[in-house]
Amino acid sequence: MQHYSVIIAASGHGKRFESDTPKQYIRPLGKQSVLERCIQSWRAVPGIKRIIVVVAPEAQEQYVHPTGDDLLYVIGGAERAHSIQAGLEALAEESEEHWVLVHDAARPIFDVRDVQQLMETTKDHSVGGILVSPVKDTLRRINENNVCITVPRNEYCLAVCPQLFRRKYLQQALSQALTQNRVPSDEAQAIEWLNLPYLTVFARFYPNKITYPEDIKLLPWGDI
Asked: Which helix (H) or strand (E) holds 39?
């Protein structure tokens, strides 16, 4: 079995969540934080060698973090790309071909089968791939006159986490973006800027992202 590392982006402050406590440290069940649940989810995925958690500088002292031989915490940067780069630097001893999954702490619940399918589909690929979800609702584009125009939804999909790439390409893509003062919306966009092809895998389950306070209530907080 190939071994994989995971970088969990958990250094954001989540302004839209409207809370003094960053959303990744909220405890919906009173016992387990969002970040703890995310780490628990990843520990259920076979083949995971190391989990890198990128946190804000002040978070290490303010909040309790899970511990374990499989966990390593690093300090994030100003932008997501800086934070993921920090996580990659912690994997410098791994080979350039090492597989790195990138995930959001704000998506603590996902289907392990989707991750395994992503791993299986990309295992022989030179670059990597991402999970996507089909657009289920009618999709409309708003033009400059604020008029809605229906577009064919079968031509679009939603990019979800995790995303999976070879370490060398992910590091190269993010380094180039930062050098050019470009801020990618996700890691796949940075890969695209290198003109590198990657695979897409349709997910069975859409891992909802916690953005607003009400999103907490929409997640299935039962046991994995």
From this structure: helix 34-43
d(CA 185, CA 190): 8
User: Structure tokens of 40?
Assistant: 């628990």
Spatial contact of 7 and 88, defined as CB atoms under 8 Å apart: yes
pLDDT digits (tens, 9 = 90+) for 111-154: 999 999 999 999 999 999 999 998 888 999 898 888 899 988 88
Contact residues for 12 (Cβ-Cβ < 8 A; gap 6+): 22, 24, 56, 80, 106
pTM of the model: 0.91
Q: Where are the beta strands (DSSP E) in the chain?
A: 4-10, 48-55, 71-75, 99-104, 128-134, 139-142, 148-151, 157-166, 199-202
> How much helix, strand and coil, in percent to the nearest 5, is found in the chain?
30, 25, 45
Reply yes or no: is the peptide bond before residue 162 cis, omega within 30 of 0.
Answer: yes
Q: Are residues 135 and 205 in contact, defined by beta-carbon separation less than 8 angstroms?
A: no
**Do residues 221 and 36 lie in contact, with contact meaning Cβ atoms separated by under 8 Å?**
no
